[in-house]
Amino acid sequence: MLDLIVTYRFAFTAVILFTIGFANVMVQKNLVKKVVGFNIMDSAVFLLLASLGYVEGGVAPIVGDVGHHPLYINPLPSGLVLTGIVVSVSVTAFSLALIQRIYRRYGTVELDELLERVKKEAD
Prior knowledge:
By secondary structure, the protein is an all-alpha fold. It has helices at about 1-5, 10-25, 30-55, 75-105, 110-120.
């Protein structure tokens, strides 16, 4: 069992991180803490994707003066991770800006209080 955990350590770590982030999103009532939970989940997915592209003993897929190396690391997961990081940062910035606007308008970022105030305003 320990050999399995050591072999797939990055996948296990990604599952643990994703579970922590998901539990945070589900349990927390504070909107900022929910955004932090989403960021933890993003990091877990990035770790998993990056670990899937890694090849033990492989080199970067750049052919230079050295010549052909038979074992290359897959560059596709790295590209997906970089793209995902850019999207994640953008979504986080937008979410935090939206939370700031919500706080200015309703005076709270707690989900229960926010729903009460929105309901009162609608009535």
